[in-house]
Recover the amino acids of this structure.
């Protein structure tokens, strides 16, 4: 069996998709606006092919709507849709935490405690390091859970959140406190092997970030419904 791998092309499509998504989030393009291939390709200094691939990726995640023979339009981002996305994400992350509690190891807890201490001690939670530590802690929970299909669902939901955690969520008012103090209870429950407690704590943690994001987007009059 032979597989044809085109890593550079695949990577380019994802990079272009990220750039277009950022334009949607920052208001560079408006909800309902048509995205034309040729002007986008010219703006990005690329051929039409990777731009089309990027738009198809965004269509899969619900950022744009693709109509055959009519091109692509920016999809509306509705408040209820964000809440539903967070509900699915929180549910998956809660189950991952429960699985981690069922498979807890001393080494795994050591990693979580070390990162949590770093978050407590970090002065600037609006920094790239704050995001890196956050990602490291959640990745450690995921590794302990050893549930790749659940993780796929969690990652799929995370990609639909209208602000990417790995690049921008530190700008949401109130996130600093959640990031500094919001993981300790989760780790306590995992260490005790308390699956239900870990599930509930992680779910509440994710939903807390939902409340922060919605409040911020409300203040920006972000919704066009």
């Amino acid at each position: 069996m032979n597989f044809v791998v085109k890593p550079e092309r695949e990577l380019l499509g994802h990079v272009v998709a990220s750039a277009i998504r950022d334009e949607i989030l920052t208001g560079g393009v408006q909800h309902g606006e048509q995205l034309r291939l040729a002007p986008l390709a010219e703006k990005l200094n690329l051929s039409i092919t990777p731009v089309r691939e990027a738009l198809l990726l965004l269509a899969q995640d619900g950022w744009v709507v693709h109509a055959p023979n009519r091109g692509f339009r920016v999809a509306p981002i509705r408040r209820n849709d964000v809440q539903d996305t967070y509900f699915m994400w929180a549910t998956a992350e809660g189950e991952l935490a429960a699985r981690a509690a069922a498979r807890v190891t001393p080494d795994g807890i050591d990693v979580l405690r070390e990162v949590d201490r770093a978050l407590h001690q970090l002065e600037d939670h609006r920094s790239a390091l704050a995001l890196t530590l956050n990602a490291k802690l959640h990745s450690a929970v995921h590794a302990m859970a050893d549930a790749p299909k659940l993780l796929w669902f969690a990652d799929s939901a995370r990609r639909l959140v209208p602000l990417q955690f790995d690049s921008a969520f530190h700008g949401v008012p109130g996130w600093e406190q959640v990031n500094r103090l919001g993981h300790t209870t989760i780790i306590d429950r995992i260490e005790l092997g308390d699956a239900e407690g870990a599930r509930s704590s992680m779910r509440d943690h994710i939903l807390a970030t939902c409340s922060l994001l919605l409040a911020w987007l409300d203040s920006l009059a972000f919704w066009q419904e």
